[in-house]
Known about the structure:
By secondary structure, this protein is α/β, with parallel strands linked by helices. It has 15 helices and 14 strands. It starts with 9 loop residues before the first helix and ends with a helix.
Amino acid sequence: MTKPSDHDGIFADAVRRLDATSLHATIDPEALEKLKHPKAILQVSIPVRMDDGSLRIFQGCRVRHDDTRGPTKGGLRFHPDVSIDEVKALAFWMTFKCAVVGIPYGGAKGGVVVNPKELSRLEVERLSRGFMAQMADFVGPETDIPAPDVYTNAMIMGWMMDEYSKIVRRHSPSVITGKPIPLGGSLGRDDATGRGAYYCIKELERLEGWKPKEVRVAVQGFGNAGQHVASLLHADGYRVVAVSDSQGGIYREEGFDVPSLIHAKNTARRLQAVYCRDALCEAVDADVITNEQLLELDVEILIPAALESQITIENAERVRAPIVVEVANGPTTSAADAVLNDKGVLVVPDILANAGGVTVSYFEWTQNRQGFYWKESEVHDRLREIMSREFNAVYDLKNAKQIDMRTAAYVHALSRLASAIEAQGTKSYYEGVG
Length: 434
């Protein structure tokens, strides 16, 4: 087997993990081979008339990885570093994420190469509608269902749903998830990714018997998912001692008042070490740290909730947290994974830890198709049931096979994917062997 390297493409890294996992699973070679290739890729050029009257052309893409178990599902990101290789890997992970939690979807992902912070709101709307206009024949309620991701949000999803509905000349809320509530969104969707990770941590708490107030937490990435998991843990008494965003981080041994950090971040658009009472905020003492330093802090739980490839072969040896909960997609490279495993670090992998988002997206899609909407408490209860059940299935598999948590999650997913692919027939069936 090729030795893991951080210098290979991210999709090649994902496929290498699949090969390693297959050694612990029972899967037909043809089913394994099928999962190594995305089903379809569409690249588009999106012309947008800018506010100053000029025309700009933006590059976008959508990858549908596998639809054996159902229509493909996955986020859409607006980011200057979007690449086909990255989107292929993200779609691949989505296939496994859906299988891990038993959602009847395959994986997809999409992106546009753009820094949305440099555009006006009207320009972002034109770009969003333009992207959907180009993708309308590639997506659909029974084909491929996008959702929000990095630098996209509920309003952008609402614009895209409206554009698709205009093109097909019928109201189509189930074409996209993560929409605003008045446009068919689901209650409980906004915090679903962070809440799913929180439910995983609560299962670990139950299994390990620790006291929340004695557990220090560091969160890299203070966007939607990072904010929500930090908030839920803080409310339970966990000590959130460090958080960061793209500009850097802050550290305070005594811990932060997380609701105050969220208020400051979402109003001032920057991370500030503050304590707020009502609308009045005052600064608190804290150390300024880098994102790299946050990953190496002496804490009990490290939560990477930013972008891919944050824990690498260069810094994995310096990670001191005994538990890593991956809220971001692909934050740990396979080379770094090997180092963490050798150190005995328990990694709750992304395809399990952040599956709350796609789970509640499935709930939203189901509600759209039924025309019947659930209470928020019902969404939370259903999400907790699924996350707790699948976490324990993976954890038990880890112990039974004496493998790491990530490998166990992939084996768990592969058992569902293999059954579906093999049910369509493989060489052994056609030869009359199976």
